[in-house]
């Protein structure tokens, strides 16, 4: 008697380059370089956007991905959303940044919890989370930021 056979899909995962863009830095060695990279991308966004910057072992930038785009009150994502592209790109580290359209860069309890979860997920995957910046444009004082690394959450 013949054993039954089943049609099971086969998959191949590919990283698709959507194009290139000019950025003011090619390496994220210090927080100032990360800030120079992400501030122009996030400061004027009317809704919350989470960016992931993929880095090689020497912190050279491999690419930038918009991981999540939300509304005025927030955005949500899972660790798999954040690390999927980083794994495919062969990243050894990532740097995260998102904006607060309210103009206040103070992290919410959700920001802190998400950052801690992503640091732990990265540890398990062998991908270091270097920092997580919150960018906010304040009408009176220009662009301000908060580093969750500086606050001890990374």
What features would you describe in this structure?
This protein has 154 residues and is of the alpha+beta class. The chain has a single domain (31-147), classed as Cytidine Deaminase, domain 2, CATH 3.40.140.10. It has helices at residues 31-42, 79-89, 109-125; strands at 49-55, 61-69, 93-99, 128-138, 142-147. Strands 2-1-3-4-5 form a five-stranded mixed β-sheet, sandwiched between helices. Helix 3 (109-125) links the parallel strand 3 and strand 4. The longest helix is centred in the C-terminal third of the chain and has 17 residues, at 109-125. It starts with 30 loop residues before the first helix and ends in a 7-residue tail after the last strand.
How does the SSE layout of this entry go?
Layout: H1 31-42, E1 49-55, E2 61-69, H2 79-89, E3 93-99, H3 109-125, E4 128-138, E5 142-147
Parallel strand pairs: 3-4
Antiparallel strand pairs: 1-2, 1-3, 4-5
